[in-house]
Amino acid sequence: MAVLGVLTTTALAGCGASTSNTAGAGGATNSTGSQTAEKTSAIGLTAKVDPNATPSADKIVIATDNTYPPMEYMDPSDPTKLVGFDVDLGDALSKYLHKDIVWKPTQWDGIIAGLTSDKYDIIISSMNDTAERRKQIDFVDYGSWGQAIVVKKNSTANIQSLKDLEGKTVGVQIATTSDDLLSKDKAITVKRYNTFPDAFQDLANGRLDAAVVDEAVARYYVNLQPDNYKIVGQTLDSLPVGIGIRKDEQSLEKSLQDALNQMKADGTYDKIYTYWFGQK
């Protein structure tokens, strides 16, 4: 991935996570890309996690796929704690919505179905706002980023673009934007995984020629294991990312948009961004 965009209050610049047997783990990185102490929370909150949470008037239940560092993942120093950029963003909503925030870990391949069947209120899980997903749910966007191609550090393959992936075996997480993007080219052998760490493990073991992931995740992985991986080529297919919400929730949608606007205006958003990714 080339240099990441600005989140403009808008596109992620940033990081990724380890893919060894401690997948999903790993230190955070500072603005120069060197490894630092573990990240926990930019805003000093401990996320409330309840796999059995159900929506109610006094709280907002947020679904997330908690295997996606640096966006949402379990703290490797305390596996009971949910941390990440998206987690801080979601927890910060409590101040503006005047409701408790409860996180409900949910597998990615069923996360939209769970929302439309009222198992939680919203999704915050680095979900790209696409036309296809808009057929099922609405979004309140908070960022925009693309996909990055990652190869082994010692790879000598000349891979700079999607075209260069033709004839190669490439790992993606199932039912993601990366999966959609690569599946359009039948000359690419796409190998699908339930989580990105599994794809990176196979990449490290030589079972893949490359992996394609969100650029924030790619940078984080590479920064944590610079001797194992490298990013090649340019950022692909940049798309907005947002909070997923049911189509019949206009009042909540407005409240979320107002909350994000306030968060950006009072500096909370920039504080969270800088903690996880360094200065824009």
Report on this model:
The chain starts with 47 loop residues before the first strand and ends with a helix. It is globular, with a radius of gyration of 18 Å. It is built from 8 helices and 12 strands. By secondary structure, the protein is an alpha/beta fold. The protein has 2 domains: 48-144 and 239-277, Periplasmic binding protein-like II (D-Maltodextrin-Binding Protein, domain 2, 3-Layer(aba) Sandwich); 146-238, D-Maltodextrin-Binding Protein, domain 2. The protein has helices at 85-97, 111-116, 131-134, 177-183, 196-204, 215-224, 250-265, 268-277, and strands at residues 48-49, 59-64, 67-68, 72-74, 82-83, 100-105, 122-128, 138-152, 169-173, 189-193, 210-214, 229-245. Helices cover 27% and strands 27% of the residues. The strands form 2 sheets. The protein has a 9-stranded mixed sheet, with helices on both faces. Strands 3-4-5 form a 3-stranded antiparallel sheet.
